[in-house]
Amino acid sequence: MKEFKRLVDLEVNRLFLKVFPPLGEDKKLDIDISIGLVFSKEPNQMCIISTDEEDRWMPSIHFSSIPKRNIYSWSSFNNRMKDWMDLKEYEKLDIEYYEVTNTVLFNNLVSQKIINVEFLSVKNIELPFGVKLIFDKDYILSTPTADGNTIETSSFNKNKNITNFEELGELEFSDIEHRAT
Q: Among residues of the chain, what percentage have pLDDT more than 70?
């Protein structure tokens, strides 16, 4: 989890949603969404925040090149998700990227610095299941779902996914500075 610490004080230059098409899914919460951040200091690579694909619990971070294909505009997001869910979209299943850099819903994230990182866990369970990137006027919360990952901000995707974890016990956020892992 120490790799998340390097995100503090980095300024977001571009922002992407990384989505696996929700073919036949019933609910918006079933859409597998991760966040792709491009920082001013590293303009040629994308930092992807998601859930570890192997253990399906812990937050993950990895860096990749900025995608050159399967990039869609934000204006097509809701229609494309609905078409996938309604089985109207039958293109080859592949990761889709939605650039949201200039989208009003994400204005408080772009050109802003990450001021802190917090991990979300069930009290008395050491390993976190979510991560929250905190900005001056907004946040990005990444948590696991049955199908992968979801993200939310103060204005996007307020699906209250963390309530699904409350049956496991009391939930707590802990500052990255206070975690040993």
A: 96
**pLDDT higher than threshold 60 for residue 179:** no
The three-state secondary structure class of 160 is coil
At residue 79, the 3 state secondary structure works out as helix
Residues 35, 15: contact at Cβ < 8 Å?
yes
What tokens appear for 144 in the block? 């696991």
Contact predicate 51/58, CB 8 Å: yes
Instruction: Please identify which residue in the block is written with the tokens 């039958």.
Output: 90
Quote the CA–CA distance of 157 and 31 in Å, as a whole number.
10
Torsion of CA 159, 118, 145, 58, to 10 degrees: 180
Joined together, the tokens standing for residue 113 give 């610095």
Q: Which secondary-structure segment (H or E) carries 142? A: strand 139-145
Query: Could you read off the pLDDT of 63-112 as tens digits, one per residue?
Result: 999 999 889 999 999 999 999 999 886 667 889 999 999 999 999 999 99
pLDDT at 176 exceeding the cut of 50 = yes
Please check the confidence at residue 159 and state whether its pLDDT lies above 90.
no
Q: Quick count: other Cβ atoms within 10 Å of Cβ 119?
A: 22
Cα 47 to the chain's mean position, in Å?
A: 10
- What lies within 8 Å, CB to CB, of 120 at 6+ separation is 128, 129, 130, 131, 132, 141, 143, 162, 171, 172, 173
Given a contact cutoff of 8 angstroms between Cβ atoms, the answer to whether 48 and 63 are in contact is: yes
